[in-house]
């Protein structure tokens, strides 16, 4: 259950990063509200998961999911470049998350 919370919290991190982009520096009301709410729920879920999980692996998986989600959102929603180098960097993040999870 704790790892499920970390995964959902990581997905919420990707959402708040994306809505933060849409908030235009917190100048647009609804995207700003969405950013703050998803941020809070993500932090709370991570905090609850960390009651039973070790700090390093849980935090790294949370950040990794958020980073990958923001990477994908940037490509899909904002037309950011998809290059071999960027895909390789994302693959290294996934590999690092997998190794960290295995070490837990």
From TrEMBL:
Q: Which SUPFAM superfamilies match?
A: Multidrug resistance efflux transporter EmrE
Query: What broad class describes the main subcellular location of this protein?
Result: membrane
Q: Which InterPro entries match?
A: EmrE-like (IPR037185), Small_drug/metabolite_transptr (IPR000390), Small_multidrug_res (IPR045324)
Q: How does the entry describe its membrane topology?
A: Multi-pass membrane protein
UniProt GO BP: xenobiotic detoxification by transmembrane export across the plasma membrane
Record GO terms (molecular function): transmembrane transporter activity
Keywords of the record, alphabetical order, are:
Cell membrane, Membrane, Transmembrane, Transmembrane helix, Transport
The record's annotation in Pfam families points to: Multi_Drug_Res
Question: Where in or outside the cell is it found?
Answer: Cell membrane
One GO CC annotation: plasma membrane
| TM stretches of this protein | 27-47, 59-77, 83-102
Q: Which family does it belong to?
A: Belongs to the drug/metabolite transporter (DMT) superfamily. Small multidrug resistance (SMR) (TC 2.A.7.1) family. Gdx/SugE subfamily.
Can you name this protein? Guanidinium exporter
What is the source species?
Celeribacter persicus
Lineage of source species = Bacteria, Pseudomonadati, Pseudomonadota, Alphaproteobacteria, Rhodobacterales
């Amino acid at each position: 259950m704790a790892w499920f919370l970390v995964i959902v919290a990581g997905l919420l991190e990707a959402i708040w990063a994306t809505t933060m982009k849409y908030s235009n520096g917190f100048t647009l009301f609804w995207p700003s509200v969405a950013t703050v709410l998803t941020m809070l729920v993500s932090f709370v879920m991570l905090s609850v998961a960390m009651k039973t999980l070790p700090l390093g692996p849980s935090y790294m998986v949370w950040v990794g999911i958020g980073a990958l989600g923001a990477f994908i959102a940037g490509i899909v929603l904002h037309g950011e470049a998809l290059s071999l180098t960027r895909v390789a960097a994302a693959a290294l993040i996934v590999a690092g998350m997998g190794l960290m999870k295995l070490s837990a």
